[in-house]
Design brief:
This protein is an all-alpha fold and 364 residues long. The protein is built from 14 helices and 4 strands. Helix content is 83%, strand content 2%.
């Protein structure tokens, strides 16, 4: 391994986080000036901005022939966003869940995850698949923005609740400065993604592990740092719509926009490793489905539910590490998890959601 590899990794992470911060800041201010609600800002502009590192890294990986990093980065980031980001944010403060997330956005995220899995069954995401996915994110974004702008009174109320200011009071940003901030942020993202991919490939060769594993762990965690910072800070500031919407929106962006774009630019499509089809994509789908009962239980993600998400991410990472090291106890680890821990969690969440639903019915 080259002595410069750690430097490339550090430069890549710093540039990606800094570029995402600049991109989010400029894009959010521009979005606010046209009257988009805080929830939709979280689901679209902030989510897309925090997912920009994933897009930059995946596109660069695809162009340079490291499709395993691209696939692992996107799937790993989606698992990380739900289990780690929402889990950590809920541990900071219980998160209120907007009705739109339960009725529309989470089901869309689940649907997009299933569609991606079905598209990948032939072993790759081709250009037609990429075009379909990318068209999906365009339709979703246009719909979300138009819906938000039609609900003018509700939007004004959301602005006051989230920011303590009315919409008109927030329309003071300078458009040229915002555009310049966006451009500088994109430059940082390009530089950071190139540096990170170079370092990651070097580490994979040195450790003798697959690019998929590197993408699922080091790269996905690194490119998801903007989501962590954004959601946790939003929790501290009581901007709970942004905290949850950011993670859900980032996942939809990763599936439809990032996979869509990479599928379009890859001449022969993105090769999806068989390991990803057997384990990681199903885990991504299960994690997305797990949002429904938790989000449904009183429309609040409590601290214990946040701890549950956080704990499951640690279990997932532990499994990847044990599988990579070929530890003899992996079979017993998997058996205990599948036979005892997973069923117990499903029963607990089902009972919790049932009680909340029955309570809601009795109040009507």
């Amino acid at each position: 391994m080259s002595p410069l590899t750690p430097i490339f990794i550090i430069i890549g992470f710093v540039a990606l986080v800094g570029g995402a911060e600049l991109l989010i800041r400029g894009s959010s201010r521009l979005a606010l000036t046209v009257g988009i609600s805080p929830l939709v800002v979280g689901l679209t502009v902030v989510a897309f901005g925090t997912s920009a590192p994933e897009a930059a890294v995946s596109l660069w990986s695809t162009i340079t022939g490291q499709s395993g990093i691209a696939v692992g980065n996107i799937i790993g980031s989606n698992i990380f966003n739900i289990l780690f980001v929402i889990g950590l944010a809920a541990l900071v403060v219980p998160l209120l869940v907007n009705q739109q997330l339960i009725r529309i956005d989470v089901p869309l995220m689940i649907g997009a995850s299933v569609i991606l899995f079905l598209m990948s069954l032939d072993g790759k995401i081709g250009r037609i698949d990429g075009a379909i996915l990318f068209a999906g994110i365009i339709f979703y974004t246009v719909w979300a923005i138009r819906k938000s702008r039609r609900e003018s009174k509700d939007v004004d109320a959301e602005y006051v609740a989230e920011f303590g200011q009315t919409k008109s009071e927030l329309k003071r940003s300078s458009t040229p400065i915002d555009l310049a901030t966006i451009v500088v942020g994109m430059i940082f993202l390009v530089v950071g993604s190139r540096s990170l991919v170079v370092g990651a490939v070097d580490i994979a060769k040195f450790l003798g592990v697959s690019e998929l594993i590197i993408g699922l762990t080091i790269i996905s965690i690194g490119t998801s740092l903007p989501e962590v910072v954004t959601s946790v800070l939003a929790s501290f500031r009581n901007e709970r719509d942004i905290a949850v919407g950011n993670a859900i929106g980032s996942n939809m962006f990763n599936i439809m926009a990032v996979f869509g774009l990479t599928g379009l630019v890859a001449p022969n499509g993105i090769i999806v490793p068989s390991n990803a089809l057997r384990l990681d994509m199903p885990v991504m789908i299960v994690v997305a489905i797990a949002c429904l009962p938790i989000f449904f239980s009183g429309h609040i993600i409590s601290r214990w539910e946040g701890a549950l998400f956080f704990g499951y991410y640690l279990v997932y990472i532990a499994y990847l590490v044990l599988a990579t090291l070929d530890v003899p106890g992996l079979f017993y680890f998997s058996t205990v998890f599948i036979v005892f821990i997973l069923p117990l969690t499903v029963v607990t969440l089902t009972v919790s959601a049932w009680r909340e639903w029955k309570g809601g019915i009795s109040e009507i």
